[in-house]
Design a protein that fits this description.
The complex is a heterotrimer of chains A (376), B (292) and C (291). Chain A is of the alpha/beta class. Chain A contains twelve helices and ten strands. Chain A folds into two domains: 126 residues, Periplasmic binding protein-like II (D-Maltodextrin-Binding Protein, domain 2); 142 residues, Periplasmic binding protein-like II (D-Maltodextrin-Binding Protein, domain 2). In chain C, helix 1 packs across helix 12 and helix 3 runs parallel beside helix 7. The chains are: A alpha/beta (376), B mainly alpha (292), C mainly alpha (291).
Chain lengths: 376, 292, 291
């Protein structure tokens, strides 16, 4: 009987504690604080700089961009590649950002929509245009005034890319459209990205619906189509970056993937194709969060990477689309074959059917439906 | 008996060891794979797992060249070391209290120790995060340490307790009879005899900490531990040095254990003590009574 | 005889540990519970309004994954037990000089990170690997079948990763088995099989219980295996919770689901212990005196 009693006591005590403390708890937690936005202070760059970025987005090593920056400015850079998905990174950092902290980071790189989302929640600092002379001198005109940040107050483009279809030409050379991925003869040999703004959007494009104008129901319809394909086993997996592994290992014949991932796919038959109906284009942005400990160095970094020679080094390694003018010429002079690549320097014609990364209306409802497909 | 019958009989007799051999091989397969792939040659030194391009020692030579990897690795080692020391100390004391003393609340204490082992890591990690958020406690090395000690304590208690239970009290009584104070008895009799159990618990705590991924993922802030680093790069191509480091870690562990065993065997021979049971009996106590 | 000081000794010994556990386990659980009772979203803020509905809602929305987790973890546990028991027995009684070596081989996998081990399996089980070809030739899987991205792969991963948790308790228990009892049974004319079923098995039940629990529980909440080795349709509860916390930022629902998961597991534990019966897991008082 002693057993029962002591366990009961513990249980009751815990319950009472819960109720008691609940009464004293805060009523509302969260909600952001977009009211007072701070502006990042510029100045002489010194000290330490912590940058968070996606993996494979910079040329590493003692001759790379980071080392060059350190040599030139004397700033000691702590470059962490800990961003693997916009949502994941946001989820991880949100509690601290809410309190005005960024975990020691002064700069990180996220997608358009994520930058906007963070800005709206008051998690980012604004940057004075005058503090970024090199940036605005060299930025591609098409990127100067995007819809989500018309005056480029809080974001500076880093690298961009396109989402299309990677095809193993030795096994499925005829795949040219996202619709082809639903063909039963490729059952279980196809993967798609787990990003809401990419996969359903591409499916909608393939059905002739414009993702930029689509209603919530049209999004849900595309998500339903994906759900049936997942349930039937047509789609093998929803992936983040790891589709490159499946392509390398020969587990799949095609995947929805990103244009610049050639260096990660050890399969010489794999080729990135622009879907016939168009792709999604995206640009990632450098942003300065609240609580950034070293904003002068961060701003200096932004200016630094917009110098065409530096930008050319980065693009040469990373093989994504540079936001800086003059990079193509520099690469051409170096004799790099990237200069001719449509993927690294896409023409207007090439991307005529492409759309950006659109956020669906009724985001919560649509996102929930999408997450249910992912964890189905 | 005919040859066939004899061999069948011998097979049946040895079925168990043969099976054990296969089972152990099964456990070591991934380790072998990892080791093999640490010798793989690839362009741009980023690969997932592949050996097509040939054999090289390049990545072993440059094993410490990847600064982020090194930082993550040293962070993990530091974290594991601290976590092991703290949780082993605390856990051992708790085990002694629970086994040697009768007191009010003993059952409740037992319950409290067992429940964390029964809680999935996802839940522990998320719950800790909720609390740290609420108190706006900065996430980082400290929060990781707190979490690691927390989930290690239960395992340490269980291991040490199981060793304590088989403990011969008469030895301590003998020491007391010979005039030793309780503290001296503890120091010279109890602790040395308890040592294998404590060492086993410490090893387990160390392994748990260095291996932890889920809880660390929720509570690390910007601190990157080795598993977190691997997770980060696994989606984009693991630097081969990771395989090499993992293999190195394994080899070091093997060497340490071998040294300990060799030392024990030497001590036995020097003391000219012939244990009555099979020679291995006293030795395996360390990893043996791990979790009950 | 026992002075007050002596009576306080256990409390001093327990103090730091209990304090740590209370502050860093019990209190966070409270916070999680409190979070589960809130509603709202990240942009509007989470208001505390006794939203009990979060509990049934989170369960009904994800019942498929909960059931699946039970099935996967259960299968992995059973397989693990079948693999581990003979191995533990062999190590305890037939290993001789190799005992410490074998025991080390059992926990050795711990020293290479969980993730790397699982990724290694991903490579071993990839569609074009020799292993899969062998399985296809043996007709264990269809000609164009695969192992990765199926439930089989996830269960195999779970079994492998939690095997040490099954082996060690079994071994610890088996080591203390007095073989003379088995001999006695045989002297009384029982066959080897009977001796096993009636003497060995019951006596090792505490070890089996401990092993089963230590394997099933973490396997139930795991998400790494499903994420790396599974495809669409293999997501477990752990994946859902992770998605809710990090991707959807629906903290109340995530917290509610976590809580329910814990309750479910505790229920399973209580039922199982009552059925299989043992004090060993909970620290029976009699343990000390039985020596």
């Amino acid at each position: 009987m002693r057993i029962r009693n002591s366990r009961l006591v513990v249980a009751l005590a815990t319950f009472a504690l819960t109720l008691g403390l609940a009464a004293c708890g805060d009523d509302t937690v969260g909600g952001g604080n977009s009211d007072d936005v701070t502006t990042a202070k510029a100045g002489r760059a010194t000290g330490d700089l912590t940058i968070s970025n996606w993996p494979g987005y910079i040329d590493p090593g003692p001759k790379g961009t980071v080392a060059e920056f350190e040599d030139k400015t004397g700033v000691s850079v702590n470059y962490i590649e800990d961003i693997n998905s916009n949502d994941g990174f946001f989820g991880k950092l949100q509690p601290q950002l809410e309190q005005g902290e960024a975990g020691g980071r002064s700069l990180f790189v996220v997608a358009d929509y994520m930058a906007k989302q963070m800005y709206d929640l008051g998690y980012l600092q604004e940057i004075e245009r005058d503090d970024l002379p090199t940036v605005f001198e060299n930025i591609l005109p098409s990127l100067e005034s995007p819809a989500f940040d018309p005056q480029r107050k809080f974001s500076v483009p880093w690298q961009g890319g396109m989402t299309g279809i990677w095809v193993d030409t030795s096994k499925a050379p005829e795949i040219r459209s996202v619709n082809d991925l639903f063909d039963p003869k490729y059952k279980g040999k196809v993967t798609m990205l787990d990003e809401l703004r990419e996969t359903p959007a591409l499916v909608m494009l393939a059905e002739g619906v414009d993702p930029a104008e689509a209603s919530a129901d049209e999004w849900l319809k595309a998500i339903d189509k994906l759900k049936s394909a997942a349930d039937s086993g047509q789609i093998r997996k929803f992936t983040g970056n790891e589709y490159t592994e499946d392509l390398t290992a020969g587990n799949i014949v095609a995947a929805i993937g990103w244009s610049g991932d050639a260096s990660l796919i050890e399969n010489e038959n794999a080729e990135w194709r622009m879907p016939t109906e168009g792709c999604t284009q995206w640009m990632e942005n450098m942003v300065i969060p609240v609580g950034a400990p070293n904003t002068p160095a961060a701003i200096e970094w932004m200016n630094f990477v917009y110098q065409p020679e530096v930008a050319a080094d980065i693009t040469g390694y990373v093989e994504y689309i540079s936001p800086v003018q003059g990079v193509k010429d520099i690469l051409e002079k170096e004799g790099s074959e990237l200069a001719d690549s449509e993927i690294v320097f896409p023409t207007e014609e090439f991307t005529r059917n492409c759309t950006g990364q659109n956020t669906p209306p009724e985001l919560e409802r649509v996102n929930e439906a999408w997450q249910n497909v992912l964890t189905g | 008996m005919s040859v066939a019958a004899r061999s069948w009989a011998s097979l049946r007799r040895n079925a168990l060891p043969i099976y054990a051999g296969f089972a152990v091989a099964y456990m070591l397969i991934p380790i072998v794979v990892i080791a093999v792939f640490s010798f793989g040659d690839t362009p741009k030194d980023k690969l997932t797992f592949g050996l097509d391009d040939g054999f090289t020692l390049e990545y072993w030579r440059t094993i410490f060249s990847n600064t982020q990897l090194n930082e993550a690795f040293t962070t993990s080692l530091r974290l594991a070391a601290l976590s092991t020391v703290i949780s082993t100390a605390i856990g051992t004391l708790m085990a002694i209290a629970l086994v040697r003393h009768k007191f009010v609340g003993r059952r409740a204490a037992n319950l409290l120790i067992v429940i964390p082992m029964a809680t999935p890591e996802v839940v522990i990690g998320a719950a800790l995060l909720s609390m740290f958020i609420y108190y706006t406690f900065a996430l980082g090395f400290t929060t990781l340490l707190i979490a690691h000690v927390m989930f290690s304590i239960s395992f340490v208690v269980v291991v040490v307790r199981s060793r304590l239970i088989g403990f011969d009290r008469h030895l301590e009584e003998a020491a007391a009879d010979l005039g030793a104070t309780p503290l001296a008895t503890f120091r010279t009799v109890t602790l040395p005899l308890l040592a294998p159990g404590v060492v086993a618990a410490a090893l387990l705590a160390f392994a748990l900490s260095i291996d932890d991924f889920v809880i660390s993922n929720f509570n690390s802030g910007t601190t990157v531990t080795f598993p977190l680093y691997v997770y980060g790069v696994s989606l984009r191509g693991i630097p081969v040095q990771v395989n090499a480091l993992a293999t190195l870690l394994f080899v070091v562990a093997v060497i340490c254990v071998a040294l300990v065993l060799w030392q024990q065997r030497r001590a036995e021979r020097l003391a000219a003590v012939r244990p009555e049971r099979e020679p291995a009996a006293p030795i395996p106590a360390p990893p043996a009574q791990a979790t009950t | 005889m026992t002075s007050l000081r002596q009576r306080l000794v256990p409390y001093w010994l327990l103090g730091p540990g209990l304090l740590w556990l209370v502050v860093f386990f019990v209190v966070p659980m409270y916070f999680m519970g409190e979070l589960a009772l809130r509603s709202g979203s990240l942009t509007t803020g989470f208001t505390f309004d006794w939203a009990w509905s979060n509990f049934p809602d989170s369960l009904s929305g994800h019942s498929e994954q909960v059931v699946r987790s039970f099935v996967y973890a259960g299968t992995a546990t059973v397989l693990s037990l079948l693999i581990a028991y003979p191995l533990a027995y062999a190590i305890a009684f037939r290993a001789g000089r190799f005992k410490p070596l074998l025991l080390f081989a059992v926990i050795a996998p711990f020293f290479t990170t969980y993730l790397i081990r699982t990724i290694a399996w991903k490579t071993i089980l990839s569609d074009d690997s020799p292993l899969v070809s062998v399985l296809q030739t043996l007709a264990l899987i269809p000609e164009d079948g695969r192992v990765l991205a199926t439930s089989g792969a996830v269960i195999a991963g779970l079994t492998y990763n939690f095997l040490p948790f099954m082996i060690l308790p079994l071994y610890a228990n088996l080591e203390r088995l007095d073989l003379r009892l088995v001999e006695a049974a045989k002297d009384l004319y029982s066959s080897s099989r009977q001796a096993f079923l009636r003497v060995t098995l019951p006596l090792t039940m505490p070890g089996i219980v401990a092993g089963v629990l230590l394997t099933f529980i973490p396997a139930f909440g795991d998400y790494v295996n499903a994420q790396l080795l599974g495809g669409t349709g293999q997501a477990m509860v752990g994946n859902v919770i992770q998605s809710l916390y990090l991707n959807q930022r629906d903290y109340p629902e995530a917290a509610a689901l976590s809580f329910l998961m814990m309750a479910l597991i505790l229920a399973v534990v209580v039922v199982y212990i009552r059925f299989a019966g043992t004090g060993a897991f909970m620290g029976d008082e009699d343990e000390e005196t039985s020596r």
